[in-house]
Amino acid sequence: MPRSLLVTGAAGFIGANFVHYWRRQHPQDVIVAYDALTYAGNRENLATLEGSAGFHFVHADICDQATVLATLREHEVDTVVHFAAESHVDRSITGPDAFIETNVVGTHTLLKAAREYWLGGDAAMSHRFHHVSTDEVYGSLAADAPGFYEEQKYEPNSPYSASKAASDHLVRAYHHTYGLQVTTSNCSNNYGPYHFPEKLIPLCLTNILRGLPLPVYGDGSNIRDWLYVEDHCRGIENVLLAGRVGETYNIGGNNEWTNLDIVHLLCDQLDSRFGASPDLAQRFPDAPGASGGSARDLITFVEDRAGHDWRYAIDATKISDELGFSPAETFETGLSKTLDWYLDNETWWRPLLV
């Protein structure tokens, strides 16, 4: 039976990738893309779907309960996939209020509207509220510690991760208190197409192409587990189709890299492309590779940020054992696809640079 999905944050990085993925895999379903179009939301991310049957775009804030409820009713939504969030740690340090408003108040507003629509009548409707969270709610890991698992104690260390932890708890509470049919996924760092250029990989990629410094915090030894964004979308699909209601699933890439090693790999892959494609030198004359140089020469170490967690890593045993999920991409193959996408889509990222 076809579904009707409300996807919040649908014009953002992961949300847009999910919408495109779900459209390919489930073309019979209705998708309602809901986004406030703040700085990181770009309607161009969904341009190829505009006007197509079964796709609708709603420009609104998740904190607007009346609009959320009206949207649920108008499109007879039975599935909410909640991506909408402020997500940049540095921004949360300098301006935490927006993170509390969107991530905590916004999530609560969605839950209230969903409860009223799905559970407020004479009979409860079949439904699912899937909440997309982050591994950062668990805090930081020591070098030899096992990866974060679903029952891990929450220890958020930034206003961003604290706001996401609060939203996770609200989702859990609405399941246990009101019977809302929920699932939650906590993912490791995503990368891939449509990634806003403030984040490490697209920032360094676009800076190399412009011959600008590549800022690396501290000594670059911070470790992250990286997940190609389409693998993340596949993981969420598995949870929606077969995950147990009320459960949390950690979606990881089994793919730990130091920040410095990531930047090195990115530099080397891009230099290799310049060597193989002379036209890149004409398109990006300021890149070191355009004159036979090395992008590694652009690496600049900067003062570490406050509350910078040293290591994140996901233990994805649960989703693997229960739902058969495993990433399809290695970091090398996923990064190669990401570089190709950015090189092919300069008209997308160029206007987003400051």
Automatic annotation (TrEMBL):
It holds the Pfam family GDP_Man_Dehyd. One of its GO terms (molecular function) is dTDP-glucose 4,6-dehydratase activity. Keywords: Lyase, NAD. The gene is rfbB. It comes from the Bacteria. GO terms for biological process: nucleotide-sugar metabolic process. This is dTDP-glucose 4,6-dehydratase. InterPro entries: dTDP_Gluc_deHydtase, NAD(P)-bd_dom, NAD(P)-bd_dom_sf. Its cofactor is NAD(+). It is an enzyme of class 4 (lyase). Belongs to the NAD(P)-dependent epimerase/dehydratase family. dTDP-glucose dehydratase subfamily. It catalyses: dTDP-alpha-D-glucose = dTDP-4-dehydro-6-deoxy-alpha-D-glucose + H2O. The keyword Lyase applies. Residues 6-337 form the NAD(P)-binding domain. Transmembrane segments: none annotated. Its EC number is 4.2.1.46.
